[in-house]
Amino acid sequence: MRAARIYKHGGPEVFQVEDDVPEPTPGPSDVLIRQTRTSANHRDVWIRKGLPDETFQVELPAVLGVDFSGEIVEVGKDVTQFSVGDRIIANPQFACGHCHACRGQRPQFCMNVDIANGSYAQFAVVRESQAIRINESVSADAAACFANIYITAWEMLINRAKLTPEDTVFIWAGTGGVGSAAVDIAKLVNAKIITTAGQPHKLDILRKRTSGLVLDHYRDDVVAEVMEATHGVGASVVFEHTGAATWERSMLLASAGARIVNAGLTTGQTLKTDAVVMIIKQLTMMGYSLGTMSGARAAVSFLNNGSLSPLIGETVPLSRISDAHRMLEEGKVAGKILVNLEE
Fold first, then answer.
1. Residue 214 forms beta bridges with which residues?
2. Which helix (H) or strand (E) holds 235?
3. pLDDT of residue 52
4. What average pLDDT does the chain have?
């Protein structure tokens, strides 16, 4: 099969696109899917670079990619919920099943989270337990850009922050992958949205995607603008996924009693926290590391009925996967970078 592999860690140039990569074999509880599309994520970049965190470690050579979707072409002997011909999306994030949290039926707090890799290929193996059926009406493009970012944003906003129509939600970088998913989900909930971008074309896209306040996070005084727009109250939910560059401002623009949810540290892992602000405002700060299957199924149900739709900013063939990573790191693309596995 055709796939993109890395044999060593490094820059985007380390990818090798090959036509003779062995097709994976499904186990008893797995399904084998044929893929025509996938997409690039920051997680893929971190694995390619060889960052030291345990969750970014892979055995080389490796096929990267976490956005799995396609048509089932083979099922393992113990599979009961799916058949050949079914179209599925896979939740790439799964709990260990045996730690204290998992035994207590709280897999979202699993400390041994694993994430599947291997979607930069024409065929991929998916655990039956991680597969979710999608309708024929869902395009291959939308399916390939959905799982990683929407399952993350759903868990953060719906299951952790408990977002409601009464909330004002502030979302950093609303044209990024997970940021754009958060905007889409907040619209679904009918919460009041304030979001940001840092380039003119991204600001224009956001103004078309939401009727809420759109700010330039490089030029505007974001904290002052949020406080003015909320009549001095602040945002009751803050969606953080950027890290060091925005964390202090996130605390300042949050309302008293606000919930701050964080799943990303792309601008740095060391966060400066003013404990006085946290205490006086009585802020609730929540991390995120695992999207549950219940949340994933809920999110996919809204993909199936057309209520959620990924923002896709660029499409490249698999032969240009190195370019996809360069574009992702440059941060100039609004939305997801789709990878066509058929070209």
1. 195
2. strand 235-240
3. 82
4. 95
- Both tokens of residue 108? 């979202």
How many percent of the chain have pLDDT more than 90?
84
Rounded to an integer, what distance in angstroms lies between the CA atom of residue 186 and that of residue 307?
Answer: 11
Q: In whole angstroms, what is the distance from residue 266 CA to residue 251 CA?
A: 18
Decide: 122 and 35 in contact? Cβ < 8 Å: yes
- Strands (E) across 68-188 are located at 69-75, 87-90, 93-94, 114-115, 123-127, 131-133, 168-171
Q: In one letter, which amino acid is 333?
A: V
Q: Which amino acid makes up residue 118?
A: G
- Between CA 49 and CA 109 the distance in angstroms is 27
Residues 6+ apart with CB under 8 A from 76: 26, 27, 28, 29, 30, 31, 128
- Domains of the chain and CATH, by start: 3-146+310-340 (3.90.180.10), 151-287 (3.40.50.720)
What pairing do the DSSP bridges indicate for beta strands 87-90 and 131-133? Answer: antiparallel
Tokens (6 digits) for 266: 């792309």
Buried b (16+ CB within 10 A) or exposed e, 187-207: bbeebbbbbbbbeeebbebbe
Task: Map tokens 């997970």 to a residue.
Answer: 178
- The type of residue at 130 is Q
Helix, strand or coil, per DSSP, at residue 32 = strand
CA pair distance 15, 36, nearest whole angstrom: 19
Residue 68: name the closest of 26, 116, 20 by CA: 116
% of the chain with per-residue pLDDT over 70: 100
pLDDT digits (tens, 9 = 90+) for 210-236: 999 999 999 999 999 999 999 999 999
